[in-house]
Fold each of these.
Amino acid sequence: MTVNHQLPTTKNERVEEVFDLFIKHMQEFFEEAKLNHEEYTNFVNWADRLGRSGELPLYADVFLETHVLQAMYTELPGTQPSLLGPYYVENAPFLEPDENGVVELTQREDEEGELFYFSGTVKNVDGEILKNAEVDFWQNDASAKYSNFDSDAPDFNLRGRFITDDEGRFTVKTFIPVPYSIPDQGPTGEFLGYMDQHPMRPAHLHIMFKSEGHETLITQVFFEGDEWMETDVAQGVRDELITDPVDKGDYKESHLEFVLRKEN
């Protein structure tokens, strides 16, 4: 009996180009590192554990994505993107603003934390106001947990979508997020241990902006004075996205401007 091992019929030149570069630089890495066979075997075994544990996306978030984004966007106008992160959930509920234009993020009646009003203005690189832009907003709670993941909070807690007003503005009523540790009990944590690197991320808000005719912007907002900001394990902090909330007594507030790039 003849077995026919059919090969792919369509060549993808871009895939070939990228993987040729990947192999080339991996080989150069091994040459430069001058690994002995035991070290090489340990490296391969660690990479195998990384894959089997399901932590490859986590590892890529921490050590690769920031550098990819910087290579893509640093020289371009507009707000710099940051990591999507592993805790994004699609189809968060749409929220309507109150009579004062404030959107209250979905939350428990006894939600703990420091009350925070965060406002923003959304424009494009030509300075045009982007009204009716969709804003997708999520964050952790006072226990450093994200809803829909390792949390006892209801689904979509501290998550929500809404649109900007006719002036491209929005205001969210929420709570100051808190720093948290990325998962560090598996191969990614093992790698951090080898590097004597802590697993902490500074407190941040996640925001995704969508507006017709513009590139989707995924970014994060950080807080002045956070002890982990200078050594963020994911290196995701952008200076232009650091906010310094103003203390208003029983709440804090701050404002940032976000600038979207037009689609090519």
Amino acid sequence: MSSSTSTHPDVMYDIAPRPKGGWLLTEKKIPGQPRLSATARGEHSKIIPFELHQPQHVPPQTLDAIGYHSLDDNEPVFARAMAGRKVHELLEAQTFSPQHMKGFGLWEKLVELQGIILKPGMADHMASLETTQNRKRVGTVYNLTWSVEPNGKDGSIRPGVIAKKKDPHVMRMVQLISEISFELVKKADGAWKEEHERQWVKEASLTCGGGENKSVTSIQVNLTAIKNLDETIDEDGGERSEDGESKSEEDVDADATMTGVDPDETNSDSNFEISEGYNITTPTSSATSTKTAEQIMEETLKDKSHVHKDSHDERRNFSCILFLNHVPQDHFVGRFNITNFRLTCTCIPFSGLVFPANNPHGGSGFAPYGPDLPLDSPLRFTPITPAGVGFPRLSDEAPYTRCLTIAYSRQDCMRARTKQLNPSIYGDAGLGAFITRKAQANWMIRHAIRDGLDIGVANPSVDDYLKKFSWIENGVKCYEDRKLVEDAFALKGTDNKEWELMLKATAYNSAHIKHDHPSRYESPKQRKARQAREVLGDDAYCTQITSKGTRCKAWLARNADGVKMCGHHYKIFMASKGGTQECNSGEAEEVVATARALKRLRDEGSEEYEEEHDEDDDVIHVSRPRRRRGSHYESSSSQRGRY
């Protein structure tokens, strides 16, 4: 796609060659109208166009017509953003071909990684490591490292169920994925800067995988099996799980949402099917389905739930997807789409994509080719291997599988509070994610210096930390790099204004997705909060006017002199009357309880962090009390630990 100013109604950005290389996205401006809010941008990002759902390559003229840009040229795409008065050009996506992987020296690692994941019986082995509850909830999406409860309670960050098992195959997968992904992040133009290095040291980021990884905290492996219908159709035509019980339609959709593939994207006339797991089948032949392919596609477009954003990811860090698909010749490898910027790429085996996962995204087109598509059509995928290197030949027993790995940086792990860290992180169980003793000792040093933890020495020096966190490897006592300890001391308690500006810049083009089917995403607590809002209706909301001249959208209001207010405006009201001096102790306690309830329920009922940073009039902005320890953390003895 060349320089373009598409007139498609959902296109929000123009794209043109960037003078410094790559492509540059600039926001469309309509004379006399303000820029779109985050919610409005999200509304334009919900649907993946029909053309991208087709299981085949999309011609350039078709991409131009729908206002999409192909990332298959491996050129970086930047977007213009503002932070204060400063203009930033932020990287939004960059792909790396198999040829790049060979040039970076990553080809052998990718081949080894695919061989482990697609080894016969590996899918069943992975499932055996997971809990039954998690398998029902997320299907064949496996979390290999840290488990994080999204509530911030004590001990909420700990090794995941699979990581605790310390399975050697899984640990090798974690090591390979983290090494490859971090290398691609560093290779991506502008994805890794000096500020990222400093924050990794200063904030004691809880990364994984051993080695030199300083970005990846969490890893998911997504598997979607492809089976021949003759082997999998049940006599009653129903979809059955391993225990023989039929899964509900909502459960199937939820599983597909986590993998980025909609269950309705299969072609009803094909000889193959897609199932979310090797023991789950979904008949899709014309003999067992009364819906045409066109009807299924239409329902897919209406159901927009497979487009999502990962709001818990660190906004300033980048995610990395590795495509390791193993599909039959009559199957298209699929497509990955970033919908707010209208970017798309082919899921080429042994290629990778680096992008910020806070942008709305989703997969499409992973299905058999249409029956009318000629075998020699250029719209079919043809693999191109690096010069002198062929794709590895898997064993005949290797299952056909849509396979991709996702390595990302989670906010809670990048800036983990002391109380959130579970004690199991420090022990042998933590090695399932750290992989090596060196990586574990590396984090423990940074964490101990950040929080000033007691290591049994008064006013500890660099040598004291090195001695305290030494480890034995192959009978030899090992020590961490001295420079790491010196850097941790130098950065402790410092501020980084450039890091804060980067955060503001990432929020400039944010798109807030309001799901049409929230019940498929919400937890039981979120469901109760939503039901409470629906019952109370407009009476639950604050009646005060914000500084922007709009009505406050905060809910769970309270009465103050006959006027309904939220906790935030109640504090302002009390301050105008003289603050807490006119309140008795009971009233003060009630104010605190109301404010805490408001914060808790708001966090349960909406995307956290989105409320505080999105530039959106429709999003609730709430002032939250910030807890500090030194300049960034609490200094009370109750928060201190001891190694």
Amino acid sequence: MSVCIVSMITAAAALFADYNSAFNQLWFNGLGLKLNKLYCPLYIIAWLKQYLCRRKAYINMKNTSSSIFNLSKGVPQGSCIGPVLFIVYHHDILEALSTIHWKHLFADDLATLIAPSSALTPKEMMKSLRRQLARILRSLINYSITWKQPINFNKTYWTLFNRQVNPKVSTIKCEGRKVKHLNQIKHLGTILDTKLSFQAHIDYIKSKI
């Protein structure tokens, strides 16, 4: 993994992806395939299959209940093993983004960072960033379709890090999907602003004291 540094003469773009009901969407058959690929012992796979597939549910609405049905996806809410299975299930998502400068997956929070060559003009940098962001989105969309983990585009954003005057930014579009640009974003509890001054985060912490 290479290191991406935002200097005074270049820029970097970050994409923060969010998944729809991430833990509730985990596909059992897909999990089995990935565990096999990781050479997980068959008896553990069989145990997990029994543990996950034997769960039942029903829907109750205004005192009317549906018939009981078997669950085909999702991990038990509040369980210790749920987050572990989710991480195992998505262990290969970073491989699908192998050309990215920096990528980080923490539970269901995915962040990627890209930076163009500092030899480019500001206009060329933005063109390069938009092209690379579209490529990342295309890879994530393909991954989400294959492994039945839909992306929540209403909560997926991108931001531009630039220590000089911010160039004109816009919404990124890919295969009919739109990703909105934000000047600052909260990621894993830290507020990131476009100039990486962390002033917004400092102000937030001060307001809590």
Amino acid sequence: MSNAIELRRSSQDQFKVLTVRQKVDEGVYAIKIHCFFNAINDEDTDSSEERMNIVSSPTLLASPATSSCSSTTQHRLLYRGALSLPDSHMLLDGLTFFATTSQSPEKALLENPLALALESMRGRPSLRFLGLVVINDLYMDYSGNISVDIHPRALLSQVYFENVFCLKPQSERGVKVALGDTDGPETTQIVIYARRDGHAINLCVGRISTAPPPPSVPRLPRPDDPIPRVPPLHLGKHPRVRELKRAHTSVELGSKGSKRQKILDADTTFKVPTIPSQGSGVTQAKAKGKTKKKGDEEHEDVFGTLNAQTKGKRKQTEKSSLQIDPEIEQGNKLLVKQMTVQYLTLGLPAPPPGSPLIDACGACPPVSKTHPEYKDILGWIYRGVSYALRTKIKSTPLDPQVVDKLVRAHVQMYASAVPPITGPAMVEREDV
């Protein structure tokens, strides 16, 4: 390894800049910039010469050189190129980005997103220079351990970085660089910053990343907040829940068709209710009398007890009292339908003089089956007569005279106002 040491005074005569040229990789020469924060006065020339001699001694410079090029650490070249200044054709060339790792380069590269981003820029002549930023205003990722070296012949780059980082004892600024042509969120942005190591300043690289969200602070309770409900004490502690959980893990695979047995407490007993039979009212009364004698009088209902037959709804008692005969019901409905169809198709003649139906019914013209209102009239007459005879139509045979009277009344009521249709209308109805 060949080292060349140069000493130059800064423009403000406040700091001394030491440029150490080191051969990092084969064919790649780089520099490291070291700033010494010792004021040099024109009057005290002897002390300044002593400082220069001490700094330029090989013993003091051996520690950074050996630490960066020791046998345990390895260097990997990531990108070599320049920075393109905005609105200018000038380039800050001679820049080399490399990673210093103590592990294998392949493993360190996979765990370092900044190194991967820089290696993806290989082949590009330059990176975009975005300007100077304040490091305290950004959230930086310093875990890459990536440094920057400057070629000894790149004088413009040396002077620029010296003016940025070596004019003040502590630099708060950094050079912002974009790894790409766009400014979208997919473009990685890095910052070249200075890090002090004893009396030297090394140029390092950090990646700009999004800041983590602030820790969530629980909101203080407000007066209008609802009172939180306390869970029941027996929730999750009942023996049924524990037994069901254990039973779920002990189910065999072969018992798919069998139902799971319902698990209850050991204290529970099955009480089979007695079904009252017909005609057993006396026996039930005796049984109730016995149970009342055995039981305590304190548990008796002050409102009394009701029979099982009287506890049902009124509709159920009415249905049970009616004895429905399907054959009688079908015959009664057929009689109503036949009389309705007969009076609609043949018409309703006027009753003879002295007939009891003369007050309610009169003559009615016939309504043919092709009439557009035939089905509606038939349905209303049939439902009206059936509803009028609803108490007898399901249990007893109907009297034909009563049915005839009701059908004639409904036909006179619905079919008397039906307008007759002409021949062409009937033909069109049949075609439809």
